[in-house]
Design brief:
Blueprint (H helix, E strand, L loop, with lengths): L2 H30 L4 E5 L4 E4 L1 H7 L14 H4 L4 H12 L3 E11 L3 E12 L8 E8 L1 H23 L3 E6 L5 E4 L2 H6 L3 H4 L13 H14 L1 E10 L5 E13 L2 E10 L1 H52 L4 H31 L8 E4 H18 L3 E5 L6 E4 L1 H17 L6 E9 L2 E8 L33 H11 L3 E5 L7 E8 L24 E5 L3 H13 L3 E5 L2 H11 L3 E4 L8 H10 L7 E6 L4 H10 L3 E4 L4 H11 L8
Helix pairs in contact: 9-10, 9-14, 10-13, 11-12, 12-13, 15-16
Length: about 650
């Protein structure tokens, strides 16, 4: 062997060693890669597999190296597409790239693989190796499919939405996309909107307003306008609800604007607001009407009551006269109660009643209510029994209102009972409540009516022989007054013809502390007989009747029929008290009171309003005008008697 041959052989061996070292180095590199790799020889026997292959395909080196690739995993790599790839590679191609294989592996399930293969040439073709890279795209393809489906759903919603949707470029606010509804709302086609700012399509008044909104959006990530006026492409005005927010998609900030046409809603809101105003005006006019109705009804009742009192005071009545007077007094009282109830239920329903609460013994109130209702009960020829404990029944209550509740219950019992019935009224303490019960032997309450007895204008069946059912407001008024006292009222009845029972519960209170010595009430100058009383009323019968009634009690009296006449008469008469109507011609009672208060000679005169106006607002006005007392017509003689006897001890109204 020549030296040249020896040198050539040594060079070849050195090259082969270098190539083997390079191969070993490359195999070490492949072993560290995260994607599965195989090294095959020319016969497609596995010479090497990296760790990623064993992990991904759940196999071991003993089950892999030295085996034909098609025999791996009990033949699960015998894939027709893979055979085509490898045969083509062995025949002519130095490499094949991105060869996709869809295969259902028995041990792994369906897989989507991308194969890349390359021949590694060594010393001769007999020593060629094949490097096979396997990329599992199953998870990625599934994610892409989900994303594609999501985008399809989004696009479907985007296209079909009944709100206008705009997608803006986050840095500058230019429109990138718009859904079809935008054309229906604004009149612009999608192509006309792309690249424009919101103010350019009528959503904001000018560029400065647009910039202000955009700054707020970038600062907070969200803006909302509940009522944003805009102009459409054809100049039509519309109201929209505008909501915009910023979110991130694939590391890109996106602005989405949702625009909802609320023009119809605004019109409905305006209609509702207008209807509310109309209802408020209707309520106001109703209250004014009720106040005027009460005034007009009370005015004629006042002289009737006064005349009946005069007849009683005059004495010497025959049996027929006395009976006629008593009928007049009872029926006038009934009319007065109806008027009062009508106004009361309106005030209570609207929440305009303010209770005057104090610690009171409800025994005296229940007894007073029994006395007030007794004339009607006796007229109907019923029997009333009253049962009260010996111990006080203390409660924080408005005495007048609670008496009103009990009177209404007693009157209701009397009206819905055949003659000769029995009513029992009692009060006691039960479980921390004062309990008042009114029980009757009347017609009872039908089961279908019982749940509605406390509703306004609700009444049981009425027949021709039972004509005094009232207005259907007494029980409703009683219920609302009890509620204002944080109490309850319950109706019970075993059925038609078996009577009924009403139970009122009001929280009990600790006993009232011992009262301090009462301070004297305000009185006019002097006392005893001879006090001067000026009666002012444009109803001549009412004024003259009151003058006559007071004269019988020993008062020196005068009458005036207008406001100006009252001022003139007071200056010469110097009355100790003025009983003054409010609705006077020429000058109303409020102005008369102010002028009397401005006159030093009349400054201490007691001013008593006797009027058909009895609402809370009327009482406030009389107080502001300088009145000392406010009485509501018809002005029961007993009420006037009590007030005058308090003001002027020694005088009294004869009965």
């Amino acid at each position: 062997m020549t030296n040249d041959e020896i040198g050539l052989r040594q060079g070849r061996r050195a090259a082969e060693r270098a190539l083997e070292e390079a191969h070993d180095y490359g195999r070490d590199v492949i072993a560290t890669l995260r994607e599965p790799f195989l090294i095959l020889d020319r016969n497609l026997v596995v010479r090497f597999a990296n760790g990623a292959f064993y992990t991904a395909f759940r196999t071991t080196p003993d089950e892999t190296e030295g085996r034909l690739i098609y025999a791996l995993g009990d033949g699960q790599w015998e894939i027709s597409r893979l055979k085509e790839l490898l045969e083509e590679l062995l025949a002519k191609s130095p490499a094949l790239e991105d060869f996709t294989v869809e295969h259902d592996f028995p041990s792994l399930g369906p897989r989507s693989l991308v194969l890349n293969a390359r021949r590694l040439l060594r010393g001769s073709n007999d020593s060629d190796l094949i490097l096979l890279a396997i990329e599992d795209m199953t998870t990625r393809n599934h994610a892409l499919k989900l994303l594609e489906d999501s985008e399809v759903r989004y696009r479907r919603l985007f296209e079909a939405a009944e709100d206008a949707i705009l997608i803006l470029d986050e840095p500058n606010g230019a429109i990138d996309d718009a859904n079809p509804f935008i054309e229906k709302l604004l009149g612009y086609k999608r192509e006309e909107l792309l690249g424009k700012q919101l103010w350019e399509i009528g959503l904001f008044a000018d560029i400065e307003a647009n910039k202000s909104m955009f700054k707020e959006l970038q600062k907070h990530g969200y803006v909302r306008y509940d009522h944003l006026p805009l102009r459409t492409k054809d100049g039509r005005a519309a109201q929209v609800e505008f909501v915009s927010n910023i979110y991130t998609v694939d590391h890109t900030r996106v602005i989405q604007c949702n625009i909802r046409d609320i023009s119809q809603r605004v019109r409905l809101e305006q209609r509702v607001a207008s209807q509310n105003e109309d209802l408020a005006d209707l309520h106001r006019r109703k209250d004014e009407f009720l106040a005027m109705l009460a005034h007009e009804l009370r005015n004629p009742l006042s002289p009737i009551v006064t005349s009946a009192a005069l007849l009683r005071a005059a004495g010497g009545e025959s049996t027929v006269q006395r009976h006629a007077r008593e009928v007049i007094e009872r029926q006038v009282g009934q009319l007065a109660r109806l008027v009062d109830d009508l106004l009361e239920v309106s005030r209570v329903t609207l929440g305009r009643v303010q209770l005057t609460l104090e610690i009171v013994d409800l025994r005296s109130i229940v007894a007073a209510a029994a006395s007030s209702a007794r004339p009607l009960i006796e007229q109907c020829r019923h029997e009333l029994s009253l049962s009260l404990p010996t111990e006080p029944l203390w409660s924080l209550a408005d005495a007048g209102r609670i008496e009103q509740v009990v009177v209404n219950l007693l009157n209701n019992a009397a009206k819905y009972m055949d003659a000769g019935g029995h009513i029992s009224l009692g009060a006691t303490i039960e479980e921390g409540d004062v309990v008042i019960r009114v029980k009757d032997t009347g017609i009872g309450i039908p089961a279908d009516v019982l749940p509605h007895v406390f509703e306004l204008f609700s009444q049981g069946p009425r027949t021709l022989d039972r004509s005094q059912g009232g207005l259907g407001i007494g029980l409703s008024l009683a219920s609302k007054i009890v509620e204002l006292h944080h109490g309850t009222i319950v109706a019970e009845s075993a059925g038609t013809g078996l009577g009924s029972e009403f139970t009122v519960r009001i929280p009990a209170a600790p006993p009232r502390p011992e009262p301090n010595e009462a301070s004297p009430e305000k009185t006019g100058p002097g006392s005893g007989r001879g006090h001067r009383i000026l009666v002012v009323d444009d109803n001549v019968d009412a004024a003259d009747g009151m003058v006559s009634l007071l004269a019988l009690a020993g008062y020196e009296t005068r009458a005036a029929y207008t406001g100006i006449e009252a001022i003139n008469r007071a200056s010469g008469f110097h009355p100790h008290a003025v009983i003054l109507d409010l609705g006077l011609p020429q000058m109303d009672g409020y102005e008369v009171a102010r002028r009397l208060r401005d006159d030093p000679a009349q400054r201490n005169t007691v001013l008593i309003a006797l009027t058909g106006y009895g609402q809370d607002s009327d009482r406030r006005r009389t107080q502001e005008a300088g009145f000392d007392h406010h009485l509501v017509k018809p002005g029961q003689p007993e009420e006037i008697q009590h007030l005058l006897m308090t003001l002027f001890p020694g005088n009294f109204l004869e009965k």
